[in-house]
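**Discrete fold encoding**
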Amino acid sequence: MAEIKSDIQIAQEATMLPITEVAAKAGLSEDQLEHYGRFKAKVDINSMSDMPSRAKLVLVTAINPTPAGEGKTTTSVGLADALNLAGHPTMLCLREPSLGPVFGVKGGAAGGGYAQVVPMEDINLHFTGDFHAIGAANNLIAAMLDNSIKWDNKLGIDPRRVIWRRCVDMNDRQLRNVVDGMGGIVDGMPRQDGFDITVASEVMAAFCLATDLADLKERLGRMVVAYTYDRKPVTVHDLRAEGACAALLKDAIKPNLVQTLENNPAFVHGGPFANIAHGCNSVIATTTAMKMSDYVVTEAGFGADLGAEKFLDIKCRATGLAPSAVVIVATVRALKYNGGVPKAELTAENLEALEAGLPNLLQHVSNIRDVFGLPCVVAVNAFPTDTSAELALVEKRCRELGVNVALSEVWAKGGAGGRALAEEVVRLCDEPSDLRFAYDAADPIEKKLDDIARRVYHADGVDLIGSARNQLRQLEELGFGDLPICMAKTQYSFTDDQTRLGAPSGWRLTVRNLKVSAGAGFIVALTGDIMTMPGLPRVPAAERIDVTPDGRIVGLF
């Protein structure tokens, strides 16, 4: 039996082209690049400001996943390679990985098998420093906020109503709730505080939704960081901090160009999580890629109830973008997981559980077609542990129900394993589509929450608990009521309870906290017990990662 190589082995054995050659394939010249070594570069977007958009946009999403993820990035990379292989110039747009999952449970986010973006180790670790710049900007705001309180507090900030939290790009539950400012008078004012993971920072959200540096600076200035004693919002502009933050981000905002294993161009830029943020790569990367190719393949994080909903209701609403087709990634193991099989037993054949998990897939398909009005195809992402009987059953049931389906073998075969999927995507992109949103942004906040809960999650309604009702009233009084909604919800279930798998009915969504992200342009609704600072698992992936004496990284996956 042939050895199954790890993702990092495959990536390290790959033959990469100099980034100048990859750029040339995308129509970019040497003077449009800012090099970060031989195989990475940032792209000067100003030189393309007058170019028209020409590409058809393809969104890759998924069913509710297992804790290990279901291969949206792998499918996205393989599909882009397959489209290029078929003679359709295609650009790939992905998010940058967070160090939290890399060292936690999920591992890296550069794809897998023979459908990866490279250099894989760089992308999964420090890359070009974008996340460090975003974290620095976030924490500069925090420092200037507390500094304003210390020095006479001329803005009248109520220390009990500071809502801006510091951030770090690591899963560190110890930092969720802290008390800072301890010590003497010179050490600040003691108060309860906390940290978010960098990918949940509003700076990240604003960064990914900005259209250029000037727009980013304006968005940074609008961000609400605290409230005064008379409950008026205090913004980054009030702190006079947006200019310094923009200076920290002036290089980060340029999209990062890398390549797939098949040497096709890819932008990897921005990285908000979809369970606690909006889960899409940067608008700048997407719109730039659409000027450079006939097709653009992009992904939205986690299941379609989170990533795709936010891509469509937030990113598309803000930019006027609209996918021509949607790919819903499903795996045999995720269907069995949604059918009640424990994670440790997912590799064993279980046709009964597979049948039981299919309603989860079909509900996502229905949402994309019937709620959002877009054509879609199910991509069955094949794993080496899948049996032929399991794969055949998924395809059979989908076709019986009139659902477009294609087997994707890109993990094992790269672009060649995505030919059938690419053909179906091209066909769907030529079909008429009419993007609709799940709610009207002009509706009251509670109506928008209810529309998402009922139409996308298939709940019986929404319950506002704790302080959420008062927060809702205050946000509408302050004029934020017409903003879109960014749901913070578990990725493992349509519900706000990660243990309720499949396609549950007869339940209500609980919203316990509402806060405005005025710079990003949405209201964040925290549901269930979702947290904006994850923790490491009992056995974190970091325990397996090492570096050899010659500098070669091992154990990254």
Notes: The CA atoms of residues 254 and 292 lie 15 Å apart. The two ends are 22 Å apart (CA to CA). The mean pLDDT is 95.
